[in-house]
From TrEMBL:
UniProt keywords, alphabetically: Membrane
Cited Pfam families: OmpA
UniProt-recorded name of the protein: OmpA-like domain-containing protein
Lineage: superkingdom: Bacteria
PROSITE patterns given in the database record: OMPA_2, PROKAR_LIPOPROTEIN
Segments forming domain OmpA-like: 65-183
GO CC annotation terms, alphabetical: membrane
Species assigned in the record: Stutzerimonas degradans
Length: 218
């Protein structure tokens, strides 16, 4: 148990040094240049490597237009008692994806946190951003810089399913890693900006740590 706590502390301290304070959450659609979509050949090459990286995990991979999207369900990825704390089972697949992106100078990623509709909009947006920040911290530790990495806390704005059932709410609690080429990064980010929202203040310390057990509902 002491070794587990020590490992958790070390990882947390590392992530504090790579906190989200340098994120710029307010790019607007007007600032995004008109750029070509990600190259189809690039996506065809990347997709099988990403599938290999996340195999045997609960993550899902899909293609959406010019994006490759990896979805991490919250219920099997995060400590239910500490929203910004990843479970140890997620560290391997996220790290493998992060290393793939970091090695490819043409690749970039936008990480979106999503919540269900339980609770207030402000709380949901904060929680979803904390979760996105926890995943982004792994990418930073792998060497990815701000010019190829952005995060957003979407709250409950982009549900996958109706929030009127337990299963629907579970589907809506997720973190999405949107992989594209760097030339398309700002255009991709602009699609997920909310001009009416006040940017969330960065967390004092995004906690990515080793948690021993998980529960099914937040």
């Amino acid at each position: 148990m002491n070794m587990l706590k020590s490992a958790s502390l070390i990882v947390c301290l590392l992530v504090v040094g790579c906190s989200s304070k340098d994120e710029k959450p307010t790019e607007t659609a007007a600032a995004a240049p008109a750029v070509a979509k990600a190259d189809t050949a690039w996506m065809d090459d990347y997709e099988p490597r990403l599938r290999e990286a996340i195999k045997d995990s609960r993550f899902e991979l899909e293609r959406r237009d010019n994006l490759l999207v990896i979805t991490a369900p919250v219920d099997s990825s995060f400590n239910p008692d500490r929203p910004g704390m990843l479970l140890p089972v997620t560290l391997g697949p996220i790290t493998r994806v992060a290393k793939l992106v970091e090695k490819d100078s043409k690749a970039a990623v936008v990480i979106l946190g999503h919540a269900d509709s339980t609770g207030s909009d402000a709380i949901n947006r904060t929680i979803s951003r904390e979760r996105a920040g926890a995943v982004a911290a792994i990418f930073r530790l792998s060497g990815l810089k701000h010019d190829r990495l952005r995060i957003r806390g979407m709250g409950s704005d982009k549900p996958r399913a109706a929030n009127d059932s337990k299963d629907g709410r579970a589907l809506n609690r997720r973190v999405e890693m949107l992989l594209t080429q760097q030339v398309s990064l700002l255009a991709t980010v602009a699609e997920y900006n909310d001009p009416t929202a006040t940017p969330a203040a960065p967390a004092a310390a995004t906690q990515v740590a080793v948690a021993k057990t998980a529960k099914s509902e937040k």
